[in-house]
Amino acid sequence: MDIKVNFSGRALYYTEDEIAVVAEAMRTAETLTQGRYMQEFQRKFAEYLGVKHCFAVMNGVSALELSAQLCRFKPGDEVVIPSHTFTASAYPFLKKGAKPVWADIDLKTRVVTADSIEKVLTPRTRAIVVVHLYGYVADMPAIMELARSRGILVVEDTAQSIGADVDGKMSGSFGDFAIYSFHSHKNLTTLGEGGMLVVQDPELAKLVPGLRHNGHCGFDFERPDYWVPAMGNVDMPMIDGEMLWPNNYCIGEIECALGIKQLERIDRINAEKRERAVRFIDALADYPELEFHRVDTTRHNYHLLAARMTNANRDAFIRTMFNDKGVKCVVQYYPLNRYPFYQRLGYGAADCPNADTFFDNMISFPFQHWLTEAEFDYMLAATKDVLDGLRRG
């Protein structure tokens, strides 16, 4: 098969300036982890979001693990999670003892709403995980109002929505915690892996450096000799009688140096992807059987370009696009309750008809930032041609 437009695992190519920053950090970084580049990346990321406490980590799952740990679940506590999302949005919370309760999505926006969340809340709900899937920010003002009225924590999974906002307030700046991913497929990527954790509570934020780095901390007394009693201390606090166990979630200095530089163009990347997405969607306006979510504002960064086939021809469309046109579309985000993993744990039940309907008919088009105009135009023409063929039967 001659693939003309692939669904790539790489979202973008680096500029010469970004490559130069990596080379410079490789030459000059005094340490290759936990150094000045990490500190600067955290500071600039916090400024970008308009928050106070950001912590760079080795990937998005590390940030999810930390946020789940800081939720401090008790036996019987529940966490509300969209059924339609990537598995990493869920299993860190199960590892900390929470029971997942699956929330449905809105069929148009493909994300959870305050109403879909409220339907599954119980007196045992400790936290809500809001995933801004595909790059679109959920209705966070309404969700936060609901959560605050019930005393429930909110974790924003902003792995896909960097730079997207609601009325100027950035995704990731609403919840008690937020996580970012800088994976190879994201709009901002730090050499394939990387992540960021946002913590709103200043007291909890003080715990993160130790949790992230093996429990390392300073001694709480003055030492006449820096090596006595040891080069560094290891300690973690008890909260409500619970020990907070540390881990090693550190990210390298080279990745942080690149992240600093990439922040300078993330808004431009998002704008360019959004312009292309809207152009693609508008060009297919005469094909209502392919239903997109059109958003021509910064509330959507179009990390991915997803559609729903409304006439049950999804599989025929993907097969023909691949076999006849060489365009590799994919299907993403199997409802988590359908996976054997969650079913074996007893979490296979979900009342999420919209998630089921969307997944069973969804198509994700190749939409990496580096697609050429020729590839983009070819994919658009191929889409029209295949849809015309399906109409003819």
Automatic annotation (TrEMBL):
EC code: 2.6.1.50
Lineage: superkingdom: Bacteria
A GO biological process held by the record: polysaccharide biosynthetic process
GO molecular function: glutamine-scyllo-inositol transaminase activity; pyridoxal phosphate binding
Claim: Transferase is one of the keywords in the record: yes
Top enzyme category: transferase
Keywords: Aminotransferase, Pyridoxal phosphate, Transferase
Pfam families: DegT_DnrJ_EryC1
Residues modified as N6-(pyridoxal phosphate)lysine: 186
UniProt keyword Hydrolase, yes or no: no
Stored InterPro entries: DegT/StrS_aminotransferase (IPR000653), PyrdxlP-dep_Trfase (IPR015424), PyrdxlP-dep_Trfase_major (IPR015421), PyrdxlP-dep_Trfase_small (IPR015422)
Active site feature: 186
Family indicated by similarity: Belongs to the DegT/DnrJ/EryC1 family.
Protein name: Glutamine--scyllo-inositol transaminase
Source species of the chain: Nitratidesulfovibrio vulgaris (strain DSM 19637 / Miyazaki F)
